[in-house]
Amino acid sequence: MAYTVDQFVGDLDRITHEETDATTITERIARLLGQLVTHPAAIPAEYRRAPAGQRGRYMLHRSPRFNVTSVIWRPGDCAGAHNHETWGVIGVVDNEIEETRYRVTETGGGRATLERVTVTRHAAGAVSRLVPGDEVHAMHNPTERDTVEIHVYGRDLAGLKRRTWDDDGTERPLVSGKYLNC
Ligand SMILES: [Fe+2]
Predict the structure, then answer these.
(1) CATH 2.60.120.10 fits 5-174, yes or no
(2) For residue 83, how far is its CA from the centre of ligand 1 (angstroms)?
(3) How far is the CA of 49 from the centre of ligand 1 (A)?
(4) How many whole angstroms from 82 Cα to the centroid of ligand 1?
(5) Which carries the bigger pLDDT value, residue 2 or residue 100?
(6) What is the arithmetic mean of pLDDT over 81-107?
(7) What's the CA-to-centroid distance between 62 and ligand 1, angstroms?
(8) Residue pLDDT, tens place only, 139-172
């Protein structure tokens, strides 16, 4: 039997009870998310399709210690460098995504130097972990078709004060009452 979203949520509940360290939590979740995303049919079809003309964002499970969402990036969709203020685990269900990781050095006055550390094309089945100290990234779908992902975060991103950076290192606040699940 393929691993299901309900089983995954049950495991997340247990893991986030048992562990407090972000590295340990994300390592444990990454193994399970890897199982989930290799069986796309385990994720209901309506959560694997973008609405017409929009990026897809769906809440699959929302609780105080973690959220599970699906994200559908259309061809060319991207998110500039941003942070999360929590741990995260991202798995690719279908197609692929390009993730750029940055090292951020604050230079004062709301500016920073962003050094590109890695650029990775994650294929279907791949999992990427975000932990404090290494959680600033940009995302891009460089392909000609939709990319489907599952995202898990340790805090509710709605209303959370996060940060984003322009290409020149200018810092801007990233906060939304809506759930920006990336
Ligand atoms: Fe992100």
Answers:
(1) yes
(2) 6
(3) 20
(4) 6
(5) 100
(6) 97
(7) 17
(8) 999 999 999 999 999 998 888 899 999 989 999 9
76 token code pair: 């060319």
Rounded CA separation 56/147 (Å)? 10
d(CA 59, CA 79): 19
Give per-residue pLDDT as tens, 15-38: 999 999 999 999 999 999 999 999
Give the Å distances, CA to CA, from 177 to 52, 124, 127, 166, 180. Answer: 23, 30, 27, 22, 8
Say how many Å lie between the CA of residue 182 and the centre of ligand 1. Answer: 4
Q: For residue 94, how far is its CA from the centre of ligand 1 (angstroms)?
A: 18
Closest CA to 80 of 151, 166, 168, 171: 166
Residue 163 CA to ligand 1 center (angstroms) comes to: 11
Quote the tokens at residue 123: 């294929």
Domain ranges of the chain: 5-174
